[in-house]
Amino acid sequence: MEILVCVKRVPDTSENEIEINSAGNDIERDDLVYSVNEWDNYAVEEAIQIVDKVGGSVTVVTVGDDESEEVLRREMAMGANNGILLSDDAFEGSDGKGIATILKAAVEKGNYDLIMTGAQADEGAAQVGGMLAAMLDYPYASLVNLIEAGDGKLKVGREIEGGNQEMNDIEMPCVLSIQTGINEPRYVGIRGIRKVASVEIPTMGASDLGVDAAAVGAGAAKVKRVDYFVPDMGEGAEMLEGSTEEIIAKLIEYLKAKGGLK
Fold this sequence. Notes:
Blueprint: E1 2-6, E2 9-11, E3 34-36, H1 38-54, E4 57-63, H2 69-78, E5 82-86, H3 96-109, E6 114-118, H4 128-136, E7 140-149, E8 153-159, E9 165-171, E10 174-178, H5 190-196, E11 203-204, H6 206-209, H7 244-257
Parallel strand pairs: 1-4, 1-6, 4-5, 5-11, 6-10, 7-10
Antiparallel strand pairs: 2-3, 7-8, 8-9
Helix pairs in contact: 2-5, 3-4
């Protein structure tokens, strides 16, 4: 099975104190520590486990600048077979649709049975996987937390409301957005990083992909960030104390006072 996993280089929130920039339209990015998007890491691990069971190869792809190559090497050290960097000045400022357009072109350059993304990226928008599937006209499942490979199709489990699990059969080729917790991503050691340090990673730009530069980038973006701020802190939660009956009575009284009950 040939699997393509879309990954992204993002600020590591465990290593950084995130602050808003002076313009108020982004975070302050100077001196940030970056890593692979958490959800994408689970997707790569799942792809590796599938290939270990049924055979094939895993390719990781990212849209970004030269520094984004580091996350490709990190995932290759984890066990992915190949990496592809999609980089072009024309890609800068692309919105979700622009990123999906670029990735679609990369998918069509290969012959993949399964395309995987993390459930969330791009500041939590969780949109690229669905857009990519729509553009490719491939079946799609989101929030996937279980995959069983079959003959020409997959059985996938999805996390849905109320803590319930939904099971579906989905034909390949398809696109899946992977939820955290589907597996336990393996540790990447220094030896693995050194092993892939000199491996050549091809870079593809707009002309290589056959992408119209006018269809991507900031100029083509239909979604533009106009503000970025940290919400004001509220007064905090009110803790109800007493017996279960007393708490229920207080809660009902509180809801009536706030208009929640009549």
